[in-house]
Structure formats: C-alpha cells, structure tokens
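Notes, p. 3: input format for complexes.
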Amino acid sequence: MCWKVCRSCSRMVDVDCAVGHTPCLTAADDSGFEIDEAEVIYWGRCPECLAAASAPTASAHASEQLS
Ligand SMILES: [Zn+2]
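Output follows (67 residues plus zinc ion):
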C-alpha cells in the first residue's frame, strides 16, 4: 500500500504502488522477519494546499474546505 500525505492539511490519498525497483522495500537486515508487506508514504503538499500557498488571500480557510 502506498500513500501520499499532505504536510499542510494531513490529507491522505492512497495511490498505486510504485512500479519497478524501489529502494527500501526490501530490508537489508530483516532480523528474521518474514516480510509480507511494505508501505510507502510520499510526504508533500496536496494540490489544494499548493494552490492556497500561491494565493495567499485564499489560504485562511483552505484547510476547512473538507468534503
Ligand atoms: Zn493539503
């Protein structure tokens, strides 16, 4: 499972997992664990927060417009 998380409003969006070889999905030292799942979280800012950041006059209530 992979997620994108917005640092500004904490919105989480699930995304299709990255394809190809992704660092850290295979542990170098699994300490005896049998790994059956790994999660990837992409941290950043969602489009709404980016828009709010680029339009300062509209940023005051942007985080309250949750649907
Ligand atoms: Zn956001």
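The longest helix spans residues 47-54.
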